[in-house]
User: Which sequence fits this backbone?
C-alpha cells in the first residue's frame, strides 16, 4: 500500500501521514485513532501534523479522495491492451478496478462501520461523483461493445451492471468472500451479454439515452471529470468551461465555438470527447 501513496518513489511527510492514518483508521477505527497517534506513526510531532492537515476529519476526506482518484485514473485513462477486443479490454479494466478497490477493503469497512457523521455531506458528494464517472465508463463501453441495438435499453443496462458490480464488491468486502477479480469481471460481462441476447423480448424501464442534448451533457461531465484528475493547464480548463457556457446559449456564436475547438485540438487526451462534442454542437447551430 505504501507504493500507492508514493507513486513508486519515496513518500513525503504528507503522503506518510495519509499512509499511516489509513493504516490506523483501518485497524482501530476513525474515532478510536488520535491525531497524536497518526503523527507519532509518521515520525513527526502533533504540531507538525497541523502544517499538513487542519484536522483528523480533513485527513479522512483526503484519504477518500485518494482512493477515489485511483479508481478515477483507471476509468478515465483505461490501459487497453492492443489486440484485445472491446469486450476483452472492458473485462481487463474492470478487473483492475475490482483489484484496486479490494486492496483498500479494510479502510472501506472502517468507513462504513465507523464513519464520521459530521462528514456525511462531503462523503456523499465524493461518492456521487464516483458513481457518475462509473456510469459514464460503463455506458461508453457497453455501447461500444454491443452497438446501436442496445440504445433503447442502455440506461437499464448501466443500472443493472452497476448494481451487480457494487453488490458483488460489497459482498467481497463486508463478507470477506474470496472470489478472483478476473472471474468476477468476466462473469459480470457475460451476465449482461445474456440480457442483451434477450432484448427483443423485453421493454426498457428507464428513459432511453438518445437525445443529442443528453449526449453532450454526458460528454461535458466526462471532460470535467478528466480535468479534475489529470494535469491540465488553467487555460484548458477555462476553455472547456467557456465552450460549455457558449454551447448552452440559445444562439451560440459559431466563430467562438470553432475557435475554442481549434485551441483545444492540442489536447490529445481530450480528443475522443471533443470530437463527438464538435459534431453534435456545430451540427445543431
Assistant:
Amino acid at each position: 500500500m505504501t507504493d500507492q501513496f508514493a507513486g513508486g518513489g519515496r513518500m513525503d511527510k504528507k503522503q506518510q501521514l495519509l499512509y499511516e492514518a489509513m493504516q490506523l483508521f483501518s485497524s482501530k477505527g476513525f474515532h478510536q485513532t488520535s491525531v497524536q497517534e497518526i503523527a507519532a506513526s509518521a515520525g513527526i510531532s502533533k504540531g507538525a501534523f497541523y502544517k499538513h492537515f487542519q484536522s483528523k476529519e480533513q485527513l479522512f476526506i483526503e484519504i477518500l479522495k485518494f482512493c477515489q482518484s485511483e479508481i478515477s485514473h483507471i476509468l478515465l485513462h483505461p490501459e487497453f491492451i492492443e489486440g484485445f477486443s472491446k469486450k476483452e479490454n472492458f473485462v481487463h479494466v474492470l478487473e483492475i478496478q475490482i483489484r484496486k478497490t479490494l486492496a483498500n477493503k479494510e479502510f472501506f469497512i472502517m468507513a462504513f462501520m465507523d464513519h464520521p457523521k459530521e462528514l456525511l455531506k462531503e462523503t456523499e458528494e465524493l461518492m456521487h461523483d464516483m458513481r457518475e464517472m462509473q456510469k459514464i465508463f460503463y455506458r461508453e463501453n457497453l455501447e461500444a461493445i454491443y452497438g446501436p441495438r442496445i440504445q433503447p435499453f442502455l440506461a437499464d443496462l448501466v443500472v443493472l451492471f452497476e448494481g451487480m458490480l457494487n453488490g458483488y464488491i460489497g459482498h467481497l468486502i463486508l463478507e470477506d468472500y474470496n472470489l478472483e477479480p478476473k472471474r468476477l469481471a468476466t462473469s459480470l460481462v457475460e451476465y449482461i451479454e445474456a440480457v442483451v441476447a434477450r432484448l427483443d423480448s423485453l421493454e426498457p424501464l428507464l428513459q432511453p439515452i438518445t437525445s443529442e442534448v443528453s449526449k453532450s451533457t454526458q460528454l461535458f461531465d466526462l471532460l470535467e471529470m478528466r480535468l479534475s484528475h489529470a494535469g491540465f493547464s488553467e487555460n484548458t480548463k477555462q476553455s472547456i468551461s467557456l465552450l460549455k457556457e457558449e454551447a448552452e446559449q440559445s444562439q451560440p456564436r459559431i466563430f467562438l465555438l470553432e475557435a475554442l475547438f481549434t485551441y483545444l485540438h492540442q489536447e490529445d487526451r481530450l480528443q475522443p470527447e471533443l470530437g463527438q462534442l464538435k459534431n453534435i454542437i456545430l451540427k445543431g447551430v
Notes: Residues 81-201 form one domain. The chain is about 70% helix and 0% strand. The mean pLDDT is 87. Residues 148 and 154 are 9 Å apart (CA to CA).
